[in-house]
Every structure is written in structure tokens, then in C-alpha cells.
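Reopening this ticket.

The earlier resolution said the output was attached, but the attachment link was broken on my side. Pasting everything inline this time so it's all in one place.
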Amino acid sequence: MPSFWETLQVDGEEMATYVSVPSGSGPFPAVVVAQTIRGVNQFIQDQCDKLAAEGYAAVAPELFHRITDPALTDPYERGATLSDPEVVADCNAAMDFLLGHSAVDNDRIGIVGFCMGGRAAWLAAATNTHYKATVPYYGGSIMVTRGAGVQTPLELADNINCPMLFHFGEIDGNPSQDDMAKLDAELTRLGKPHQFFSYPEADHGFADHTGARYNREGAEIAWPRTLQFFAAHLKGAPVV
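Inline output:
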């Protein structure tokens, strides 16, 4: 199961992207993995490798590639530099890389994202029709814009044309349980297929085994649900 770093071009700039692929020649289903606020770190690389072990080509674009100031190291300050149109462009570049790869089945591509990547997963699914499934993990700030964004991810929800599985932490403040109810109500109003799960005593970042808020019980339930969801929508397995 090989993994490596690839350099993609986005708006004339280079974007490092972690790639993990199954053994064999494919064509494989594929998943874009959107990073946490801590970058394409060990946790994100591990998720890519785990997906590859399940038969998916997985790619994780480095969404902070436009930051050139070496002094800007704080994750939250780095996250504040992101702009919605740029995040969309980065995710689209990852999608284009998959679409152009002979080992990838173009009709079976999904996206999963964690933390700020959960928001990116929603945004990507609302702006690119190639996605067949989206799985945000505790994506916050879906009801606000970032940078040069004109519409919030929530306002773009009617453009989502694939099923969604969203994982929430019960004690998370962003997205909160009230946020979950509002997101659920809007997707229901729009007739968008979705499943929402909330995990008891789980906070933001509960799936990240390298982080301080890791919640083993929630993580070990959420990940198999994610794999079942992708298997149903990207591999044609029966829906559980």
C-alpha cells in the first residue's frame, strides 16, 4: 500500500498533497481527505492510509499552502487566513487530480473532512457535482463565510447532490447541538439525504487519536459508520 507526496498546481501555486493508494492497478473508488486546523498531520495521513487499506485512493491537500510567513505557526491564526473560494479551488484541484488518474474510477469519489476540514467537506460537496458522498466530522462555522466567501456553506446546501453523513460531538460548542438541529432542519427542508450522529461526552476533535480531546468510544463508532457509508455510496455495498 504505497503512500507519497504529490505536488498539485492551484491558481499558479504549488500545493503539497498526501496520497495513499491501494495495492493493485484499480480502478479504485477515491476519497478526498480534508485536513484539520493542524494541517495534513499524522492523524490525517493515518486516515488516508486507513482508507487505502479499505480499497480507496485517498488524497489530502495541504490547505495552508498559500501561507508564506514562517512566523505564522499558530494553527488558529493559520486557519483564519483561509478564504472559501480558495478552499473550493484546493478541493477542486484534488478532485481534478483524481479525475485525471487512470487508477481512479471517476464515478466513485467522495470526501471526508475533520474540524475545519468538516466544513470544507460540506463546502466542496456544495460546489462540485462529482462527489458521490460527503462525511463532515464536527465541521464548525457552516453558517458563516470565510475570507472572500459570498454565501455560507449552509446557504449553498441546495447545491449538494450527494448523500451526507455528519458526525457531531455532544459537548462540542462549534458545531453545537443547536447548530446540528439547524443544519438538520435545512437539509430536511431541501430534501437532501443525510444522516446525523451525535456522540455522548465527545468534544470537537473527538476522532483525532493524536489530539487531547480524543474520545475512543465515539471514534471507534464513527469510523466504521464512515466506512459503511462510503462502501454503500462508492462501492455499491448494501446500506446498513
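Reporter confirms the inline version is readable. Strands lie at 3-10, 13-20, 28-34, 57-61, 104-114, 131-137, 164-169, 194-199. Residues 3-234 form a domain with the Rossmann fold fold (CATH 3.40.50.1820).
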